[in-house]
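Example record used in the benchmark description.
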Amino acid sequence: MVYFLGEYPIIQTDSTNFSNGIIYADEFVTDESSGSKDLKAFNTTEQLSRESVNPTISPPTMIEISPFSVAQDTGITSDQTSKPVGQQPLQIEPAYPEQKPFQPQRIPAVFRKKRSSSVPSPGITIQTPSGYGKSWGSASVGLGLQSRTRFTDTADGVIGFGIGLGDAQKSVGLDVSLGIVDLDNLQDGTLSFKLHRRLPDDFAVAFGVKNFVTFGETDGGTSAYGVVTKMFRLQDSDSKSFSRLYVSAGIGGGQFRSESDIRNKVDSIGVFGSLALRVAQPVNAIAEWTGQDLTLGLSITPFKKTPLVITPAVTDITGNAGDGSRFIFGIGYGISF
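Model output (structure tokens):
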């Protein structure tokens, strides 16, 4: 059987299955073609084999729902609740005695500090090793010159490349260096290694071998060594004058032996060390004993944002080795990746 429900879609049912889960406020009306106010059933196009049943349907029940009263809890009237949330007034007065009045608070703004870029540091040694070294993420390229070699009047130079592996802060770092000792044909060179570790209380320690691998014609010889470096903080900031003092001390064979032991082929152990004072942020004054003679010089970083290090120095000052003082000069560039 089919019924029409006001302006709503058609509902189809039969005498044994009624749908009464929905209550509408509209009254039921019959088909306009019947012209009767009473609700009547009509046969479909097919003749039913049994008599149609006229079910009795109770008229819909009207349910009145009173509007919510929120003024008891919030102090906002029903007219105000009908507005969108963004247009409702802010409650600043208490709605009941136990409620505390609204008190605006000033919250300080928090700004993330911009991390300042690192300033390049000058070197702390000239010819001798220190307890510091490169770790993974750092590399370098450099050029070294000397006005003349010992017992000759011939100038000489060397090109160096270095890269760091590992992590000296967490475990151990490995500094690998390649040196080309003949600038004329670039066929003579050495490969050196240094294991180094940063320790608490501003200590650093390193063990290495200079010229561990050689190719072509070289005259340096293989030199194993161990060295310890201690940094003393003389000021609270390294930007101040005379702020840091670096002291390094080590022992080694090979080129760290005295010149007489090298000449006489005595397999001995030599002592070397250095002092570096940060006289200004970009300048270190350095004095070192190479195991054979005294060297004095400066290490300078002339540009704040460029990791370029310049090192002019004078070596063989005391005459304990060689045939007089010689001027040496180094320039290096640090690379971070």
